[in-house]
Design brief:
The protein has about 475 residues and is of the alpha+beta class. It has helices spanning about 10-15, 70-90, 120-125, 130-150, 190-200, 210-220, 230-250, 280-285, 290, 325-330, 340-350, 385-390, 400-415, 450-465, 470-485; strands at about 5, 25-30, 35-45, 50-55, 60-65, 95-105, 110-115, 120, 155, 165, 170, 180, 260-265, 270-275, 295-300, 305-310, 315-320, 360-365, 370-380, 385, 420, 430, 435-440, 445. It is globular, with a radius of gyration of 26 Å.
Length: about 475
């Protein structure tokens, strides 16, 4: 029995992210016409590309629709060429079952066999709890990248999500991003290190210690000599790629994309996490003050009000940055709001793998170009701040050595990224499930010049030590930890 409505290219191109699942389509090629059912959306670029899981001829498939009328044929041809090049090089990838046109409309479509019992490498990496297993996964994926480079192929969108793990087999996907320009000729060192740098730059810096071992696997597969010069070139490339990636990502968080919904008008600017796009959330973001005033205040001040609210059964923290008076409004109206800075800094920390409450939304009230009251909304972290934790009865339940070590790692990560916080009071650190979260990010800065960072971070550490003036033993332990930070 057929399931879902029959749709055409117009519906797929114009429905944006509001496609109703399941749906059916008719495809045709020179040899046959087929009917195909799509049951789950895997990826969508509205009006450009749609990737679905579905069923064709009794088997599970992945279907790629190329919807951009100007570039559809070009992208389809590039996808097919990339997949074919991977197969010819002996690199595991999806098997193409059908190539045809969507009817009516004539947009190209590719149908691939669904790989059984598969998990993408991103999820596999997240599930790992030990560095030994992470190192093993890293060696596996780097070995595949070495095979690609030896065959003269580069994957221009080289990240873990484009590799699938099925048992002990690794599959490379997204043939559209496979560059075949040098196919059949092993890549030069410069091009190889550039592509490797792109991959390593997307791994959290706290895992950088795994790079050296993985790179040895790459060198052995390419039959290159192991030397410090080549490794240093790779590290330089990683830093370059990381800087480019960070710059690109921090622009993305203020616009409409697959991760965020963005709405701009004369009187407000709103951007929020697409996974929170529900009717109740939209209603809350339309008038946040109504729900704030009805709920529990965590802080009530002249310049900032912090409240805990509940939307869709999930607790959120809303920080409202108030305007005190006309003079305050005049000073703030042309500058990015503190909510704007907090939103940016929360994503900056998330990109570095530094725990902070997940940012959900940024809302600025505006009058044209002039900014007014602003809101920063995050997930609620159910824990206790470090100041009260270490002065409460729960202090005995905390292994202080582990907490001090977490602070040491946090400080070293911030130092490596040239980031100062601006207010290291102990209440801005929350402990939950033995994890340390950092909050209150509106004064956080990333410094371009290392000398300015050292000065600002020195003030942070001095403020941090003031928290323990009445706890001499703990103060001594923290002081020893701070001495180990590389500034």
């Amino acid at each position: 029995m057929s399931v879902g409505r029959i749709v055409d290219s117009y519906y797929l191109s114009t429905s944006g992210r509001s496609l109703e699942i399941p749906f059916r389509v008719f495809l045709e090629s020179d040899k046959q016409n087929i009917e195909l059912t799509c049951s789950r959306i895997l990826r969508i670029l509205p009006g450009k590309r749609l990737v679905c899981a579905g069923e064709y001829n009794g088997q599970d498939v992945v279907v790629k629709f190329f919807l951009d009328s100007r570039r559809a044929e070009k992208h389809c041809a590039r996808e097919e060429k990339g997949i074919r090049a991977l197969k010819e090089a002996g690199i595991k990838t999806s098997s193409l079952l059908f190539k045809g046109l969507l009817k009516p409309g004539c947009e190209p479509v590719l149908v691939f066999r669904m790989i059984d019992r598969v998990i993408d490498f991103t999820e596999a990496w997240k599930q790992v709890r030990s560095d030994n297993r992470r190192a093993e996964l890293m060696r596996q994926i780097i070995s595949i990248i070495a095979d690609q480079h030896e065959a003269g192929l580069t994957h221009d969108d080289l990240h873990m999500g484009n590799f699938l793990l099925a048992g002990n087999d690794i599959y490379t996907i997204d043939g559209d991003a496979v560059n075949v320009r040098h196919k059949g000729r092993a890549l030069s060192e410069v091009k190889s290190l550039g592509n490797l740098g792109l991959f390593f730059a997307q791994i959290y810096p706290r895992y950088n210690h795994l790079i050296s071992d993985a790179f040895k696997v790459y060198l052995e597969k390419r039959e290159w000599s192991i030397n410090t010069v080549t490794y240093n070139r790779l590290i330089k490339e990683i830093r370059h790629q990381h800087k480019k990636r960070k710059k690109k990502y921090l622009k993305k968080i203020y616009r409409e994309c697959s991760a965020f919904i963005c709405q701009k008008s004369w009187d407000r600017f709103l951007v929020y996490d697409r996974s929170y796009n529900t009717e109740k959330m939209v209603r809350f973001l339309t008038d946040p003050d109504g729900l704030i005033d009805m709920n529990r205040f965590l802080k009530k001040g002249n310049t900032a009000t912090v409240a805990m609210v509940e939307v869709d059964g999930q607790r959120l923290v809303v920080k409202r940055y108030n305007i005190k008076n006309a003079w305050h409004a005049l000073r703030r109206c042309l500058r990015p709001s503190r909510a704007w800075n907090s939103w940016r800094n929360a994503h900056r920390l998330a990109a570095l793998g530094i725990p902070t409450p997940k940012p959900i939304a940024l809302l600025e009230k505006r009058w044209g170009f002039f900014r007014s009251k602003a809101y920063f909304i995050t997930e609620y972290v159910d824990g206790i701040d470090v100041y009260h934790l270490l002065r409460s009865d729960k202090r005995q339940d905390v292994y202080q050595g582990d907490l001090v070590e977490q602070f040491g790692k946090l400080f070293q990560q911030l130092s490596a990224a040239s980031i100062s916080h601006g207010d290291f009071k102990a209440t801005n650190f929350i402990v939950t499930d033995n994890r340390l979260f950092i909050t209150d990010l509106d004064a956080m800065r990333e410094h371009q010049f290392r000398c300015r960072f050292r000065k600002a971070f020195g003030k942070d550490l001095k403020r941090f030590m003031q928290n323990w003036a009445d706890l001499s033993e703990l103060s001594k332990i923290f002081r020893e930890q701070i001495k180990n930070i590389k500034l």
